Leucyl/phenylalanyl-tRNA--protein transferase
Amino acid sequence: MVPWLSPDAPFPPVERALGASSGAPGLLAASADLLPSRLVDAYRHGIFPWYSDGQPVLWWSPDPRMILRPDEFKVSPSLRKTLKRVLRDPAWEIRVDNDFAAVMRACANAPRHGQRGTWITADVIDAYSSLHRIGDAHSIETWLDGQRVGGLYGVSIGKMFFGESMFAAVTDASKIALAALVAHLRRNGVELIDCQQNTAHLASLGGREIARKAFIAHVRATVGAHAIGWRFDKQVLADWIGQGHADNSPVPTL
């Protein structure tokens, strides 16, 4: 039985989430509220919300957990060429937190293979925008000729980054934003990006699954660290590309 959380009730231990044999593996709890304080508490415990419009707020902690280690990020030859072009051409920009809510809306409207609708509802946008205003959520945006053409957003607590969603209006625009994020996180000693659930796209970029126990241990060890800064642009890519590292090799420290 999935517990219903009152506004002041704490989350149950993640080990109580439904198992693989259930119809909803990883489902931990449900609630009516999506308050910023509840969201921050959830991420600090390795829990995230995911639900459809009209449902209660459903809280998840799946086992295994999909993650991407910045030093395992895979760069294909074609993406490397694109990144070099981004660095050369001033028409390309990487902006951070230029318009957080607009990135969320773009992610909500992005088509997803095998999915109908979106979980990024107006209430979700409001809740994460509140986290953005207090400095716990950020957007990394790819711009071309003055137009936002891709990006991603997520939650940053201590030395842990929890990825939420990304979109691309032109080829590789979201990958450019992700590459910039990876370079920035490596520069700041962040060792793991939470990707929540397994997708072929994330796996192609170096994402992989780890046991929930290991994931939770890493979260506990990193969320209490000093928060990293979020002022950067496409220059974070320059040293990386200049290293001339081999295809699909680990990204060198910036």
